[in-house]
Amino acid sequence: MKRVGKSRFKRWLFRIFRKNETEIHELNYLFWECTWRCNLACRHCGSDCKAESGIVDMPFADFLKAIEPLEKRYKPNTTIIAITGGEPLMRPDLAQCGRALRQHGFQWGIVTNGMLYDEVRHRELLAAGMGSVTVSLDGLEATHNWLRNRPDSFQRALHALELISSAPQLNYDVVTCVHKRNLPELPQLKELLIAKGIKHWRLFTIAPIGRAAHDPELQLDRKEVEQVFQFIAASRQEGRIDVKFSCEAYTGKYEEQVRDSYFFCRAGINIGSVLLDGSISACPNINRSFVQGNIYRDNLMDVWDNKFEIMRDRSWMKTGRCAHCKDFKQCLGGAMHLREKPQDAVIRCYRF
Fold first, then answer.
1. 294: helix, coil or strand?
2. Which of 53-67, 101-115, 332-346 ranks highest by mean pLDDT?
3. What is the DSSP string of 154-223?
4. How far apart are alpha carbons 207 and 213 in whole angstroms?
5. How far apart are CA 110 and CA 248, in angstroms?
6. Helices 119-127 and 94-103 sit at what angle, rounded to 10 degrees?
7. Would you say residue 47 has pLDDT above 70?
8. Distance (Å, rounded) from C-alpha 151 to C-alpha 153?
9. How many angstroms separate the CA atoms of 105 and 111, rounded?
10. Rounded Cα–Cα distance for residues 45 and 11 (Å)
């Protein structure tokens, strides 16, 4: 079979797989936005979190009650709870929350900036059954500190990564948001991660939402985005570190070069979230106008089963530049977080 024919066949098989996943829509990855408090004031933050948010942390008992239907529906360890924020390590009860989640049959992990991740918290979280960690490292020292607005943020994140990578029971990765300042640093950053024993690295671009919407220095132009894809493709050929483009967008001709599988926005299909105010949504990065319910008045599984149609049937996304795109059947209009509200055109297209 010729390479072009083989690629078409693989994409056809993938579309069948995606259709089946969408019809089954098992909730196997649930974000919990446990706090809006954060110890950084990052230039690109989509949540506009603050050290002392005016909204109090969600009581863990409320979240645990909301996910009882998942415990009844699915076998133990079927659903992973990803605890995010804000900065989840701002919660002093994080380990207790995690331990209770394990006792109820849920796997759990955190998304962190690493500022508070020291030896004590590392041991505490491991003992509570934490199974996964995602840490942000957004360039070499000066660049990372500039983006994070904190002079010691790079060294603290690096120390967190050293602790995390030393624990063989943890699934972990580093995420890097690529912008104009750190794009030239990617080769050096790759060497640093390899030297530190880091094995898994995901690259994102920064969507023009939140604080980033008004900062052109954080936005890559089309040529720069292609440079990111070419860097990932070359690094994957080397095989020295598992680097991939994130799930954020379809990349056209680069699809088979920059990630392990084809683009699949799983928001509302396999991925859900409980936001700080109790809102039930999909990926926490998507616009709040896509909220489907609230745990304080709705049963989580009822909402999951009977709503989310706007995410499971994406024919409505064939608008604007997507209306006549030959790749729509593969892309389905891109990632949900690149739509500001239902019926809006996609903010950015990454197809090459």
1. strand
2. 101-115
3. HHHHHHHHHHHHT-TT-EEEEEEEE-TTTGGGHHHHHHHHHHTT--EEEEEE--S-GGGGG-GGG---HH
4. 7
5. 19
6. 20
7. no
8. 6
9. 20
10. 34
In contact, 312 and 329? CB cutoff 8 Å: no
Residue 345: what pLDDT? 78
In this structure, what DSSP letter does residue 11 have? H
| Percentage of the chain lying above the pLDDT 90 cut | 85
**Tokens standing for 123?**
């041991």
Using CB atoms within 10 A of its CB, is residue 320 exposed (0-12), middle (13-18) or buried (19+)? middle
Q: DSSP alpha helices (H): ranges in the chain?
A: 3-24, 60-66, 68-73, 94-103, 119-127, 141-148, 153-165, 186-195, 222-238, 255-258, 300-306, 309-312, 328-331
CB-based contact 332:317 (threshold 8 Å): yes
Distance CA 311, CA 205 (A): 22
**d(Cα 284, Cα 337) in Å, to the nearest integer?**
9
Distance between CA atoms of 345 and 338, rounded to whole angstroms? 9
- The neighbouring-strand residues paired with 94 are none
DSSP state, 59?
Answer: P
Residue ranges with strand state E in 240-350: 242-245, 271-274, 279-281, 293-294
Report how far residue 134's alpha carbon sits from residue 119's, in angstroms, rounded to the nearest whole number. 17
pLDDT digits (tens, 9 = 90+) for 67-120: 999 999 999 999 999 999 999 999 999 999 999 999 999 999 999 999 999 999
User: Distance between CA atoms of 308 and 283, rounded to whole angstroms?
Assistant: 12
